[in-house]
């Protein structure tokens, strides 16, 4: 692929604040975007995410009062997503889910599962000290979710679809809505971010970034 095509996609991508509600993303294109999330890397390959694609406007309206960063995006986006990150009960080294994941998804033999569990335990206990608090584990999971977010936004831009990542929400209030209306178990999942997709309603502002020499040091 011509490298300029990729750079052009990065120039095209911006945090689109308002979409044209009359234009919808095709099923084929959105499944392509989701596939780039599915193929995204994560620490240990444990995929600590779940994506809620919220197309029903009644459900979107339940999120809207508590999402100050999505006042225009939620009503106008062709597709709206809430990314959930796993919490400690699902990610702890000795959880049943992690062992099942290695066995069923990663298809590891039992001796590899035992060895990897020991390595994973050390990573959580001392290398990154993720067991110091539930928040530490959750924040670590959110880091992985952001890899998938970046890949989805870039993939969307490559095929001419706009996006907007959203962190402007009242977490406790959104959690209440997710528990009451979406059936999310808050002991297992929390919101990492929201992400809107569609087609821009108006041209974006000029993209501004620091030059490379201000952000890169060579040794």
In short:
With 219 residues, the protein is of the alpha+beta class. It is built from ten helices and four strands.
Task: Describe the fold and architecture.
- The chain has 219 residues and is of the alpha+beta class.
- It has a domain at 3-83 and 145-215: NADH Oxidase.
- The protein has 10 helices and 4 strands; from the N terminus they run ααβααβααααβαβα.
- It has helices at residues 3-12, 27-38, 57-63, 73-76, 88-91, 96-105, 110-127, 134-158, 171-181, 212-215, and strands at 49-53, 79-86, 162-166, 189-198.
- The chain has a 4-stranded antiparallel sheet with strand order 1-2-4-3, sandwiched between helices.
What distinguishing features does this structure have?
219 residues; NADH Oxidase; 10 helices
CATH architecture of the domain at 3-83 and 145-215: 3-Layer(aba) Sandwich
| H-E string | HHEHHEHHHHEHEH
Low-confidence stretches: none
Outline: globular
Structural class: alpha+beta
Q: According to CATH, what is the topology of the domain at 3-83 and 145-215?
A: NADH Oxidase
Oligomer: single chain
CATH homologous superfamily (4th level) name of the domain at 3-83 and 145-215: NADH Oxidase
Taken as a percent bin, the fraction of beta residues is 5-15%
Query: What topology, given as strand order, has the largest sheet?
Result: 1-2-4-3
Distance between the termini: 30 Å
The whole-angstrom Rg is 19 Å
Main sheet record: 4 strands, antiparallel
The strand count comes to 4
Average of per-residue pLDDT values:
97
Fraction of residues in helix = 40-55%
CATH domain class of the domain at 3-83 and 145-215: Alpha Beta
């Amino acid at each position: 692929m011509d490298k300029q095509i990729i750079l052009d996609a990065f120039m095209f991508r911006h945090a689109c604040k308002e979409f044209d509600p009359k234009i919808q993303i095709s099923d084929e294109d959105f499944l392509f975007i989701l596939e780039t999330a599915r193929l995204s890397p994560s620490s240990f390959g444990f995929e600590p995410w779940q994506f809620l694609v919220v197309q029903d406007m009644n459900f979107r309206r339940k999120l809207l009062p508590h999402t100050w960063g999505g006042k225009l995006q939620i009503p106008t986006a062709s597709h709206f997503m809430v990314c959930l990150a796993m919490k400690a009960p699902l990610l702890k080294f000795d959880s049943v889910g992690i062992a099942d994941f290695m066995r069923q998804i990663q298809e590891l033999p039992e001796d590899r599962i035992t060895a990897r569990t020991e390595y994973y335990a050390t990573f959580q206990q001392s290398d990154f000290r993720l067991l110091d608090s539930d928040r530490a584990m959750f924040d670590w999971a959110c880091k992985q979710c952001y890899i998938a977010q970046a890949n989805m936004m870039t993939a969307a831009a490559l095929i001419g679809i706009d996006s907007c990542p959203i962190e402007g929400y009242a977490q406790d209030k959104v959690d209440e809505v997710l528990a009451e209306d979406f059936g999310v178990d808050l002991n297992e999942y929390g919101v990492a971010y929201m992400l809107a997709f569609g087609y821009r309603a108006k041209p974006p502002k000029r993209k501004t970034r620091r030059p490379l020499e201000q952000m890169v040091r060579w040794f």
